[in-house]
C-alpha cells in the first residue's frame, strides 16, 4: 500500500489533476464532450481489442518497435558516459507524433466521429494526423499559425498531399498557441461530428493522461531494449520538451525507478532572459491557466500570455504539459534549458559522428547530453530520445549556418 | 441583494425583458470605452457586461478577440479595468456590472485579492468562460462567499443530466448560449431557442438571458421574447471598431434595447 501511495505513476486524480496542475478549464460547450471522451477512453483503455488494433498498426504501419541505438562515435567523441538513442525519428512520418495520433484516431472512429481537427507547430503532428486520416478516409483539418506555415513549407505541402485542409491562423500572433485557440473554436462550433486530436500532453483532462499513455510505448520499449542490451536500466534518460509528449512518453514508465535520473530539456532560445526570448516555461515561467489546464506558462505580471521564442517551431509553445509541472515541483524530474546556438552545435555533431540528421527538437536534448556526458564515467548509461528527424529543418539550419540554398528549394524535399 | 438581483426583481415587477450589453474594457482606449460605458444605462441597457481583455480568448470570435488585442496594445490591465469600474460608479451606483473574461488574469492576481478589489470597485458579478462547474472551488464558491454573483453559461450541449450541475452554484442569472460556437457567429433562431429556455426555466427560478448571434433590433426583440432578456456583444463591439463615434454606437445600442424592451 505504501508503495502505491509513493508511486509517481498514479496521476491524474479524478479531477484530472497532477498535484495542483491539469484540470478541465474549458467552456461549458466543450465540457460534455470532454466528459464523453474521458468515458470512452477509459473504456478503450481496458479493451484488449483496442490495444490489439494499436499494436498491429504500430508494428506494420508505424514500424515499431523503434531501435535503441548505441551512439558509439558520439560517446567516444564526448569521452564519458555511454550514450544510447531511442530512434523514434525512424517512425513513419519521421517523428514520435504518430504514436499518439493512431491512438486518438482509433478512439475517434470508435466514437463515430467523422471529422478530425488538429493544431500543429512545426507540422509534425499535422503531418501525422493527416497521414492517419488518409489511411482511414477521415476528413482532416489542421490549424497552423501563419508564421509557422511560412517557415515549414515542406510539411504544409505534405499535409495537402495527404488530403488535409491546412488553415493558416492569423488571429492573435499566428503561432502554435493561436492555432490551438482556433482549433478549440472549431471544436466548440462543430461539436457533434468532430474529434480534436491534440498533439501533446496538454489541454483539458483527459488529454494529458491519454496522450502520455499512447506515447508511453517509447519508454516501455526502451526499458525492454535496455535490459536486453545492458541487462539493466539506464542511469539517465533525457528528452526535449515543447508541450512535452515525447518526454512524457519516455519518462513515464521510469517514474518509479528511483535510480534512474530524469532530465527534460526546454528551449532556451536566445537565453532565458527578461525579454522572454525563449520557450522555457518551467525555467522562466510561473503557474497559470491556458488551453484547458493549469501549468507553468510564459506570462506577464498581469496574467497575459507571452509568445515564446525558439529556433525550433516544435518547441515554440508558452506552456508545458501539466504532468511535467508536477514532476518539476516534486523534484522527480529535473528541467534544464538549452539555447538555439547549443542546439545547432549538437545538430551538427550528430550529423558528423553518427550519420543521423536530427530534428532541431531532439537536438536540444542532445546538446544537454553533450554538456553532462564528458563529466560522467564510462559505465554511466544515458538514453536520449531521438524523437524526430531533421529533414524538415535543413532550411532553417542552412540559414543559421550561412549556407545559401536559394534555387534548391523543393528539390531537397524528401 | 446584489445590484444584479435587484435589477431583475424590478424588471420582473414591471414585466419587462432585460437588455444586456457587452463592451470590452479599454477598447480602443480607456477614455473611449469609459465614455461608451457611461452612456449605456441611458441608452436602455439594464446590465453591463464588461470584458476583461485576455491574449487567448478561446471562446470568442474575431470581433471580440480583436477588441481585446486593441485594449491590451493600448496598455489595458486588470488594475485599469477596475479603475474604469470605479470611475463609472462615481456617476452610477445602480447599474449592475458583470465582469466577463478568462481565468488566468484573475488567477495571476490571486483569487482572494481579486475578489476584494473587484467588490470594492463596484463589480457585481462574474462570467468566467473557462471555469465550468467542475472547477467551482477555484473561483465560483469564493466569489459567492465574497458577495459577488457567479453567472454560468448553459449551452446547447448542456443536456438534462448535466443541467442541475451547471445550475447548482449559479446566481444572478443564467446566460444561455444560443448556438454551439463562438461569439459573433451565425444568428440564433427564436424558434430553436424557445424550447431550450423553457427547459432551463423548468429547472431554476433564475432569469434566463440569451446571447451569441444577436445583431439586430429585430433579433433582440425575437430572442428576448422567448427568454427573460438578451445579450448583445460582438455587434456593439464591431460597431465601435468600425470607427463610429461613441454617440452613434449608443444610438445602435438604444435601438437594440428598444427591441428587447418591446418584447
UniProtKB/TrEMBL annotation, chain A:
Protein name per Swiss-Prot or TrEMBL? Tryptophan synthase beta chain
Choose one Gene Ontology CC annotation of this protein and give it.
cytoplasm
Tell me its EC number(s), please: 4.2.1.20
Q: Which cofactors does the annotated protein need, by name?
A: pyridoxal 5'-phosphate
* Span of domain Tryptophan synthase beta chain-like PALP: 63-388
- Do the record's keywords include Lyase? yes
* Keyword Lipid metabolism among UniProt keywords: no
In terms of NCBIfam families, this protein maps to: trpB
- As stated in the Swiss-Prot or TrEMBL entry, residues carrying the post-translational modification N6-(pyridoxal phosphate)lysine are 97
Pathway entry: Amino-acid biosynthesis; L-tryptophan biosynthesis; L-tryptophan from chorismate: step 5/5
Recorded hits in CDD domains, A to Z, give: Trp-synth_B
User: Where does the source fall among the domains of life?
Assistant: Bacteria
Alphabetized InterPro entries for the sequence: Trp_synth_b_CS, Trp_synth_beta, Trp_synth_beta/beta-like, TrpB-like_PALP, TrpB-like_PALP_sf
Organism of this sequence:
Pseudoponticoccus marisrubri
TrEMBL record, chain B:
Q: Which Gene3D superfamilies match?
A: Aldolase class I (3.20.20.70)
Q: What is the lineage of its organism?
A: Bacteria, Pseudomonadati, Pseudomonadota, Alphaproteobacteria, Rhodobacterales
**Catalytic EC class:** lyase
Q: Which residues form the active site?
A: 49, 60
Its annotated pathway reads: Amino-acid biosynthesis; L-tryptophan biosynthesis; L-tryptophan from chorismate: step 5/5
| Protein role | The alpha subunit is responsible for the aldol cleavage of indoleglycerol phosphate to indole and glyceraldehyde 3-phosphate.
Q: What is said about its interaction partners and assembly?
A: Tetramer of two alpha and two beta chains.
Q: Supply the name of the protein.
A: Tryptophan synthase alpha chain
Q: Which terms does the record give in the GO molecular function aspect?
A: tryptophan synthase activity
Query: Cellular component per GO?
Result: cytosol
Family designation: Belongs to the TrpA family.
Whichever gene encodes this chain, its name is trpA
Which SUPFAM superfamilies does the annotation name?
A: Ribulose-phoshate binding barrel
EC assignment = 4.2.1.20
Task: Quickly give the catalysed reaction.
Answer: (1S,2R)-1-C-(indol-3-yl)glycerol 3-phosphate + L-serine = D-glyceraldehyde 3-phosphate + L-tryptophan + H2O
Q: Which InterPro entries does its entry note?
A: Aldolase_TIM (IPR013785), RibuloseP-bd_barrel (IPR011060), Trp_synthase_alpha_AS (IPR018204), Trp_synthase_suA (IPR002028)
Amino acid at each position: 500500500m505504501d508503495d502505491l501511495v509513493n508511486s509517481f505513476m498514479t496521476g491524474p486524480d479524478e479531477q484530472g489533476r497532477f498535484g495542483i496542475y491539469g484540470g478541465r478549464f474549458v467552456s461549458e460547450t466543450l465540457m460534455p464532450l470532454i466528459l464523453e471522451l474521458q468515458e470512452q477512453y477509459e473504456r478503450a483503455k481496458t479493451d484488449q481489442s483496442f490495444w490489439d488494433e494499436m499494436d498491429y498498426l504500430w508494428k506494420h504501419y508505424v514500424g515499431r518497435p523503434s531501435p535503441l541505438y548505441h551512439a558509439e562515435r558520439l560517446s567516444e567523441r564526448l569521452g564519458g558516459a555511454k550514450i544510447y538513442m531511442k530512434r523514434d525519428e525512424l517512425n513513419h512520418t519521421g517523428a514520435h507524433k504518430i504514436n499518439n495520433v493512431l491512438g486518438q484516431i482509433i478512439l475517434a472512429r470508435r466514437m463515430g466521429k467523422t471529422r478530425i481537427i488538429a493544431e500543429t507547430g512545426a507540422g509534425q503532428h499535422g503531418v501525422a494526423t493527416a497521414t492517419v486520416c488518409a489511411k482511414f478516409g477521415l476528413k482532416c483539418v489542421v490549424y497552423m499559425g501563419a508564421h509557422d506555415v511560412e517557415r515549414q513549407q515542406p510539411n504544409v505541402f505534405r499535409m495537402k498531399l495527404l488530403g488535409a485542409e491546412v488553415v493558416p491562423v492569423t488571429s492573435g500572433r499566428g503561432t502554435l498557441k493561436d492555432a490551438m485557440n482556433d482549433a478549440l473554436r472549431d471544436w466548440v462550433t462543430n461539436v457533434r461530428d468532430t474529434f480534436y486530436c491534440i498533439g501533446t500532453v496538454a489541454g483539458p483532462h483527459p488529454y494529458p493522461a491519454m496522450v502520455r499513455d499512447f506515447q508511453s510505448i517509447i519508454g516501455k520499449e526502451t526499458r525492454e531494449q535496455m535490459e536486453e542490451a545492458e541487462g539493466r536500466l539506464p542511469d539517465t534518460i533525457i528528452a526535449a520538451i515543447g508541450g512535452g509528449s515525447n518526454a512524457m512518453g519516455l519518462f513515464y514508465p521510469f517514474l518509479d525507478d528511483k535510480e534512474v535520473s530524469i532530465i527534460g530539456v526546454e528551449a532556451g532560445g536566445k537565453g532565458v532572459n527578461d525579454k522572454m526570448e525563449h520557450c522555457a516555461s518551467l525555467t522562466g515561467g510561473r503557474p497559470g491557466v491556458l488551453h484547458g489546464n493549469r501549468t507553468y506558462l510564459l506570462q506577464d505580471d498581469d496574467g497575459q500570455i507571452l509568445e515564446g521564442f525558439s529556433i525550433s517551431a516544435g518547441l515554440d509553445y508558452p506552456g508545458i504539459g501539466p504532468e511535467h509541472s508536477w514532476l518539476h515541483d516534486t523534484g522527480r524530474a529535473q528541467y534544464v534549458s538549452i539555447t538555439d546556438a547549443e542546439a545547432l552545435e549538437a545538430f551538427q555533431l550528430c550529423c558528423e559522428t553518427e550519420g543521423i540528421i536530427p530534428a532541431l527538437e531532439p537536438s536540444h536534448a542532445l546538446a544537454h547530453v553533450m554538456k553532462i556526458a564528458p563529466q560522467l564515467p564510462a559505465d554511466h548509461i544515458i538514453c536520449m530520445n531521438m524523437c524526430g528527424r531533421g529533414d524538415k529543418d535543413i532550411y532553417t539550419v542552412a540559414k543559421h549556418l550561412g549556407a545559401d540554398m536559394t534555387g534548391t528549394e523543393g528539390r531537397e524535399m524528401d | 441583494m446584489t445590484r444584479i438581483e435587484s435589477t431583475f426583481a424590478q424588471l420582473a415587477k414591471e414585466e419587462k425583458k432585460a437588455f444586456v450589453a457587452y463592451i470590452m474594457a479599454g477598447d480602443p482606449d480607456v477614455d473611449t470605452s469609459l465614455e461608451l460605458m457611461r452612456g449605456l444605462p441611458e441608452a436602455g441597457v439594464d446590465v453591463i457586461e464588461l470584458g476583461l481583455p485576455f491574449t487567448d480568448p478561446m471562446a470568442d470570435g474575431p470581433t471580440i478577440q480583436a477588441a481585446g488585442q486593441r485594449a491590451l496594445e493600448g496598455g489595458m490591465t486588470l488594475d485599469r479595468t477596475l479603475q474604469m469600474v470605479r470611475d463609472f460608479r462615481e456617476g452610477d451606483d445602480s447599474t449592475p456590472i458583470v465582469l466577463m473574461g478568462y481565468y488566468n488574469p484573475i488567477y495571476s492576481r490571486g483569487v482572494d485579492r481579486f475578489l476584494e478589489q473587484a467588490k470594492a470597485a463596484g463589480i457585481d458579478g462574474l462570467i468566467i468562460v473557462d471555469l465550468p462547474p467542475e472547477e467551482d472551488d477555484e473561483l465560483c464558491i469564493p466569489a459567492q462567499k465574497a458577495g459577488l454573483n457567479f453567472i454560468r453559461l448553459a449551452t446547447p450541449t448542456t443536456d438534462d443530466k448535466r443541467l442541475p450541475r451547471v445550475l447548482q452554484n449559479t446566481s444572478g442569472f443564467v446566460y444561455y448560449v444560443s448556438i454551439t460556437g463562438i461569439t459573433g457567429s451565425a444568428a440564433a433562431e427564436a424558434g430553436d431557442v424557445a424550447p431550450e429556455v423553457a427547459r432551463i426555466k423548468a429547472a431554476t427560478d433564475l432569469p434566463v438571458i440569451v446571447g451569441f448571434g444577436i445583431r439586430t433590433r429585430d433579433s433582440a426583440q425575437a430572442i428576448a421574447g422567448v427568454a427573460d432578456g438578451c445579450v448583445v456583444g460582438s455587434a456593439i463591439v464591431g460597431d465601435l471598431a468600425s470607427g463610429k463615434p461613441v454617440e452613434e454606437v449608443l444610438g445602435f445600442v438604444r435601438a437594440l434595447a428598444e427591441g428587447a424592451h418591446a418584447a
